[in-house]
UniProtKB/TrEMBL annotation:
Keywords: Ligase
Gene Ontology biological process terms from the UniProt entry: amino acid activation for nonribosomal peptide biosynthetic process; secondary metabolite biosynthetic process
Gene Ontology cellular component annotations, sorted alphabetically: cytoplasm
Domain AMP-dependent synthetase/ligase, first and last residues per copy: 18-365
Classification via InterPro entries: AMP-bd_C_sf, AMP-binding_CS, AMP-dep_synth/lig_dom, ANL_N_sf
Superkingdom in the source lineage: Bacteria
Coiled-coil portions: none
Protein name stated in the entry: D-alanine--poly(Phosphoribitol) ligase subunit 1
Source species of the chain: Albidovulum denitrificans
Length: 517
């Protein structure tokens, strides 16, 4: 197909299926929404947006049902979606508004409408239809039929912001063509999932992993049941809600699942309908898979990989017992249809991953230097990640390129050390860094906490690694903090242990050990 508006039409076809469907689309403690009501409310708002300007729109909200209404209204009207969370600082929202070029904000939460959001005029997101014939202040009748524009495949569907290396918001734009291609791929992943029950709503909408949850639900006309991050640590409360709504499909980072495993009721006895768990955003460890299979016998676990710049994820694979027996880390799988992965050079072995094809996004807003470096050609993205491929077409992620350090004349890749530690029994996750004094390595482990356990792991690593690669200082903890995207907060994890119990000291030759003072 050569038509420049095919992507928008394919997305619109998904939305059109909502009309008249009375089934539940969304559940949140602040209210629920049927597919029919989602269709009607989004259509009304889309008509208003299409008749009032053309710039990007900030959607200011969290997990309320109004967020999905605003999302579809923007998508239908060609107004680029820029999600911002309610707990974002005002200054950061203003920065995001400035970088994105947003001209309007939609307040997608209950409560009083703020006068402005990020110095932008704000509209409320209405759920119920106003009285027939009522006219908005902008002159659009409440019962007006949507007059929606044709939208080019290359137009920006959404922009997500990360902090970037400077701490300033970095805007990453994804096109309608990218999004339609992702939705097609999500449909193929659905083929192996239980078509009943509900989809998890674990992920914040400013984090693109949430698109798995949204499109799984919309393509199968199933409900999303969304826990609120205000009480994300109240696992018992959310478990009961997932049980009551018959959760069958779970999406999250590995760290969030590890957090839920703290509650022994997170098992097949409480969630007997849970069929599939899909992970994205972090390294999936063998330890986590083993624990999940012990709690949920027969559980289908899917591992995925991909940067935000390439529309959520670009690979997937169902994890099987033989992957746990393999000496290598868990695979990330082959690329999805329409996307190609390759090494940066023609040589075999570990190299930078390059992504090419339909998943590659539009790139960075207002940052031509970064754009030229990361997107050297059309539909091509340099990931900055190390990777390799086996003879079966499965790829393996080996960490970030920028984690190589130099210590006492030796070059050391911290990714290799962390991967080796994750492969040791009892280690749920690991962070390795260079001590601020620049003279020794430190290892921070999630799982083992006792002095003897840490000494044993240090000795074990010393049998497999050269002496200069064995950290001298070892810390252990059984708890961790997550960031806003439910990933392991590596910085806070390290800070917590630095200020807690003393480290265990492992001598370089690993022949003798003493506890650090």
């Amino acid at each position: 197909m050569t038509c420049a508006v095919t992507a928008h039409l394919s997305l619109r076809a998904v939305f059109d299926r909502f009309a008249g469907h009375t089934g539940l689309a969304y559940w949140h403690e602040d209210g629920q929404l049927s597919y029919r009501d989602l269709h009607n409310a989004a259509s009304r708002l889309a008509a208003r947006l299409a008749g009032n300007g053309s710039g990007p729109v900030l959607i200011h909200g969290h997990k309320d049902r109004r967020f999905l209404i605003a999302y579809w209204a923007c998508l239908l009207s060609g107004r680029t979606i820029v999600p911002v969370e309610l707990d974002q600082r005002s200054e950061r929202i203003r920065q995001i508004a400035r970088v994105s070029g947003a001209t309007l904000a939609l307040f997608a939460a209950p409560g009083s409408l703020p006068g402005r959001v990020g110095d932008l005029p704000a509209w409320p997101v209405e759920i119920e239809a106003p009285a027939p014939g009522w006219v908005h202040v902008d002159g659009i009748a409440s019962d007006a039929a949507p007059v929606l524009p044709e939208i080019r495949d290359t137009a920006a569907a959404y922009v997500l912001f990360s902090s970037g290396t400077t701490g300033q918001p970095k805007g990453i734009a994804i096109s309608y063509g990218n999004l339609a291609d992702f939705a097609d791929w999500a449909g193929t992943l659905l083929a192996g999932m239980d078509p009943t029950g509900c989809i998890s709503g674990n992920v914040r909408y400013c984090f693109d992993v949430s698109l798995f949850e949204m499109w799984f639900a919309w393509l199968s006309l199933r409900p999303i049941v969304a826990p609120d991050h205000r009480d994300i640590f109240n696992i018992r409360k959310h478990l009961d809600r997932y049980r009551d709504h018959k959760l069958t499909t779970w999406v999250s980072t590995p760290a969030l699942a590890l957090h839920w495993l703290k509650d022994r009721r997170f098992d097949a006895g409480t969630l007997p309908d849970l069929h599939t768990m899909l992970f994205c955003g972090e390294v999936l460890t063998k330890s986590l898979v083993e624990t999940l299979w012990s709690r949920f016998p027969g559980l289908r676990i899917i591992n995925t990989y991909g940067p935000t710049e390439c529309t959520v994820a670009v690979t997937s694979i169902e994890i099987r017992p033989e992957h746990l027996a393999d000496s290598r880390p868990l695979p990330i799988g082959p690329p999805r249809t329409g996307t190609r992965l390759r090494r940066a050079s023609a040589a075999s072995g570990l190299d930078e991953l390059i992504i090419e094809g339909k998943s590659v996004g539009l790139g960075y807003l207002g940052d031509p230097e970064r754009q030229a470096s990361a997107f050297p050609a059309a539909a091509t993205y340099r990931t900055g990640d190390w990777g390799d491929c086996d003879g079966m077409g499965n790829w393996f992620f080996a960490g970030r390129k920028d984690r190589e350090i130099k210590l006492n004349g030796y070059r050391i890749d911290l990714n290799i050390l962390e991967a080796a530690l994750r492969g040791i029994d009892g280690v749920k996750d690991a962070v390795v860094d260079l001590h601020p004094n620049g003279k020794q390595l430190r290892a921070f482990l999630l799982g083992p906490t006792g002095r003897d356990a840490l000494l044993a792991i240090g000795r074990r690593l010393g049998r497999d690694m050269a002496p200069h690669m064995v950290p001298k200082l070892w810390y252990g903890a059984d708890g961790f903090e997550m960031n806003a995207n439910s990933k392991l907060d590596r910085g806070r994890f390290v800070e917590r242990m630095e200020g807690g119990t003393p480290a265990v000291y492992v001598e370089r030759e690993t022949s003798g050990t003493v506890a650090a003072e």
